[in-house]
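Proteins fold reproducibly. Next comes a concrete instance:

***
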Amino acid sequence: MTRIDESAAAKSYVAKLAAGGYPLERAKNDGVNYSDTKEERDTEAVREFTKSALFEAFKKMK
């Protein structure tokens, strides 16, 4: 089995790396940001709750 030319392989690797052939971040999560979604959902739930009769009853408790 013949050896590969390490210098040529290294140059090829560096060229591909510089061209973006090997991304630094392998797993890019481009899905929904759960934290933001959760915060929006919870904020809306609190806004709705403050309009309820139960919330009014809680406010009147001493």
